[in-house]
UniProtKB/TrEMBL annotation:
This is Coproporphyrinogen III oxidase. InterPro entries: Heme_Transport_Util_sf, HutX-like. It comes from Bradyrhizobium valentinum.
Length: 171
């Protein structure tokens, strides 16, 4: 990406931090990772994909969250507890027979983004698992309470996970 394009993307994301990441990526012909990296530094932290299993097993202890898979053709949402998993036969295997289960190609995870930003007039916090191509594998959103506020217990866990995976840089 040219420096002028990057500067324009950074300015756009500073003015529109709640923009749908995948839409911005498609419109500007960049990867979703590039969009995340262009967000204001106070809203996003990037850590290594090698923390995939640890991050997923941490999230498995949060309780009810929303997992979103956003493709060009659909947006799938699952609200519920994420099961714990383990690595075997080349996959991170979600270990439960019903509800959300499956096999994730953890080795394709190049980075993990912790994103906290406004979205549609509300605070939002999510973990984005970014693949080696710069795409978002899926996102796990901090849950909301009965007043639609972010669950404080999960937000604390989100911050702790973000700090473990991508410690804040000293200024």
């Amino acid at each position: 990406m040219l420096s002028t394009e990057l500067a324009e993307l950074k300015a756009y994301m500073a003015d529109n931090p709640g923009a749908v990441i995948e839409d911005v990526a498609r419109e500007r012909k960049v990867s979703p990772r590039a969009v995340l990296e262009a967000m204001p530094e106070s809203m996003v932290r990037l850590g290594p994909g090698s923390e995939f299993a640890a991050a997923m097993n941490d999230v498995a202890q949060w309780g009810e969250v929303t997992l979103i898979v956003h493709t060009d053709d659909a947006i799938f949402e699952f609200t519920g507890a994420i099961p714990a998993g383990e690595i075997g036969r080349g996959y991170f295997n979600l270990m439960q027979p019903k509800g959300l289960h499956g096999h994730l190609r953890h080795e394709r995870c190049a980075a993990i983004a912790s994103v906290e930003r406004p979205f549609m007039g509300r605070s939002s916090a999510f973990i984005a698992f970014i693949n080696v191509d710069g795409g978002i594998m899926f996102k796990v959103f901090v849950g909301r309470d009965e007043t639609r506020a972010l669950r404080s217990d999960q937000l604390q866990r989100f911050h702790a996970l973000a700090e473990r995976i991508a410690p804040a840089r000293a200024v």
